[in-house]
Description:
Layout: E1 6-12, H1 30-38, E2 40-42, E3 45-46, H2 52-61, H3 65-68, H4 89-95, E4 99-104, E5 118-120, H5 127-140, E6 146-151, H6 191-220, E7 227-233, H7 248-251, E8 252-253, E9 255-258, E10 265-267, E11 271-272, H8 276-283, H9 301-305, E12 315-319, E13 330-334, E14 338-343, H10 354-357, H11 360-368, E15 372-373, E16 376-377, H12 378-382, E17 387-391, H13 409-425, H14 431-436, H15 442-446, H16 459-469
Parallel strand pairs: 1-6, 1-7, 2-10, 3-11, 4-5, 4-6
Antiparallel strand pairs: 2-9, 3-8, 7-9, 12-13, 13-14, 14-17, 15-16
Amino acid sequence: MSTHPSVLVLIADDWSPLAGCYGNAVVRTPNIDSVAAKGMLFERAYCTTPSCAASRANILTGLYSHQHGQYGHTHGVHHFSTHEHVRSLPAILNDAGVLTGMIGKDHVSPQSVYPFSHYDKSLPWRTRDLVASTRRFLKDADGKSFYLQVGSMYPHRTGGDFDPSVGDGYEPDVRYSPDEVIVPDFLPDTIGVRHELADYYRFVTRFDRFVGEVLGELERAGRIRDTLVMILSDHGMPFPGAKASSYNTGHHCPLIIRHPDGYGGKTDAGVNWTDIAPTVTDFLDVSPEECPEEWTGRSLLPLLAHPAAPGYELTWFSHSFHEVTNYYPYRAVLDRRYKYVRHLAYREPMPLGTDLYDSVTWQQVLADNSERMGSRVTRDVCFRPQEALYDLDDDPMETVNLIDESGLRETAERLRAALMQMRLRTRDPWLELDYQQGRLPEHLRDGLSGRSWHVPRGLAPLAQEECARQ
């Protein structure tokens, strides 16, 4: 290892695990596949909230959205922002003497909470500009440790549909036939869906080009042997039943980590985006005492050497908003087989994001009055149960709710307790809803001072016992 260890994070927008290295034989992703061949591919990586801004804040704070306060989009009328008291990853690294950079799409605010020393909001559609800015940053970083996050807008749609004309002529124009794309099990197999997927594949390949170009700059700067490379997405693909939904099809994301010392392979460890910040500080040798006590994530570096390392069996989700009009809070926990979900606004329909509602896919579903979307009942895309348990081995599309199955009562109680423990430990303000619904014991509510959900030491294990008894 160099005496100047560094981290490069490349973030896609709206990208599900759709690449050659993830088993898709149609989409062309040679640069991503090359990184995966030399690094560790995570098969069970999840964003904690399937919405752009909140997810990126998770990555940069090591906190769930109900902790950092950026519940949804930061731009326009949505106007969510991170709490001023939150100490983010760039602030921690600046204090540790690490050069920090943000290029392209950031989608977090305010900048005072994210004080990157190099901040360049180049148009995230223009790969040429992102690459040029990366080149300038790496020149400034010569002889220094750095953290650089570069956000491409690909493969995000531009409006109600994908717009292949977006860009500056620098991006590849690899076209896909609607006949060759693979329709996922949660979408109807219609010509409209296939055309939209063909455009999506086209934008995935543009993201792959972005990855190759930025890594080329890293190599030309002589920093390959210094740098931990992470490739991931903010959340899943921009289709109804994925992005901004509680289904795994919105949470399941690609994650590839290439360590300078190798450590290739695959792991089925359960990880989420609150683990990214602890991984970065671990690699950069930042003292744990310099990191926030509120962090609940774990460094992923042990998994690079030992893909089956213990301690990564459970992982959690927490979502509240997408756009300001898309209020649909839920919390979830999953192990290697089962997923338990609590929908906190289950009496209301789950609103679709604007781009999802306007999409060719959803408009065709409405026009055809389709009762099913692939293996799912269409109604289930918008109406979710208060409590659900899914067997992800037998039912990966989460179509059969097993919460009342007598043979799975112990599993449901175990995961219900694990979720409550996380929510208490992270001071989830939405616990007030649980109390009003009779799901939080009085003495636990009384123990949370001033309704600010500051959890006294020793309370979380008590909550686990109480929840298991209910």
